[in-house]
């Protein structure tokens, strides 16, 4: 087994006694209108990454990486085929309906795609799913639970790290509880305050199975290229 895996945020690594454990599943829970993906980019710079996009095409994800300033470590972007589009996800949020036409149709099961991607992991990497919401709204609770179990086993086998970005909404996905049960560690990110010159983000760690318990709420400073913990706000 390799040692602890860095989060890319030194002050957070110190609070976690070195970082995250190989084989961990991390659930990053955040409203969609936050800079939560900056945390993903920070972790990506620590080791090779398989980035699975469930809503956006590869070109859109790559543009975000480029705008961020690029990723310094090798990565591969995969998408879950012709599944739920961003337009379709918006329709669901507004109506609660999964009845789509045209390009918004659910044509393939994204869980099958994710299962294949997980099965391809052969060495220690990050496996990022952005976001997990469409998977948490699938047709079969048992199938989603089975996929999470397979993911956990594969991560442990290869000393890898899994990160599931879980957007919050008024209508939470029905399988969100399974995600949080399977997760070894949960990060909750939210906006605390917004001013003309600053947005203050807060990070809470309500769950860290088998690891250091962090009881403090951490203030995050999220810039265009880096994420740091702003200890000055605690003074």
From TrEMBL:
It holds the Pfam family DUF7125. Gene3D superfamilies: P-loop containing nucleotide triphosphate hydrolases (3.40.50.300). InterPro entries: DUF7125, P-loop_NTPase. The gene is rad553. It comes from Halapricum desulfuricans. This is RecA-superfamily ATPase implicated in signal transduction, inactivated. The lineage of its organism: Archaea, Methanobacteriati, Methanobacteriota, Stenosarchaea group, Halobacteria.
């Amino acid at each position: 087994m390799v040692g602890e895996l860095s989060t890319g945020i030194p002050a957070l690594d110190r609070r976690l006694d070195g970082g995250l454990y190989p084989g961990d599943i991390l659930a990053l829970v955040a409203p969609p209108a936050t800079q939560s993906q900056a945390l993903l980019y920070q972790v990506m710079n620590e080791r090779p990454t398989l980035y699975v996009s469930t809503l956006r095409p590869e070109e859109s994800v790559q543009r975000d990486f480029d705008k961020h300033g690029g990723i310094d470590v090798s990565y591969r972007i995969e998408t879950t085929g012709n599944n739920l589009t961003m337009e379709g996800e918006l329709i669901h949020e507004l109506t609660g309906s999964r009845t789509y036409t045209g390009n918004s149709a659910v044509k393939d099961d994204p869980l099958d795609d994710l299962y294949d991607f997980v099965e391809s992991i052969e060495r220690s990497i990050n496996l990022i799913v952005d976001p997990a919401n469409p998977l948490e709204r699938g047709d079969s609770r048992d199938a989603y639970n089975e996929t999470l179990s397979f993911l956990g086993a594969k991560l442990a086998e290869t000393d890898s790290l899994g990160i599931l970005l879980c957007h919050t909404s008024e209508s939470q996905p029905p399988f969100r509880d399974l995600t949080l049960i399977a997760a070894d560690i949960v990060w909750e990110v939210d906006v605390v305050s917004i001013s003309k010159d600053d947005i203050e983000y807060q990070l809470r760690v309500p769950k860290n199975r088998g690891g250091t318990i962090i009881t403090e709420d951490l203030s995050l400073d999220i810039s265009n290229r880096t994420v740091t913990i702003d200890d000055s706000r605690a003074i």
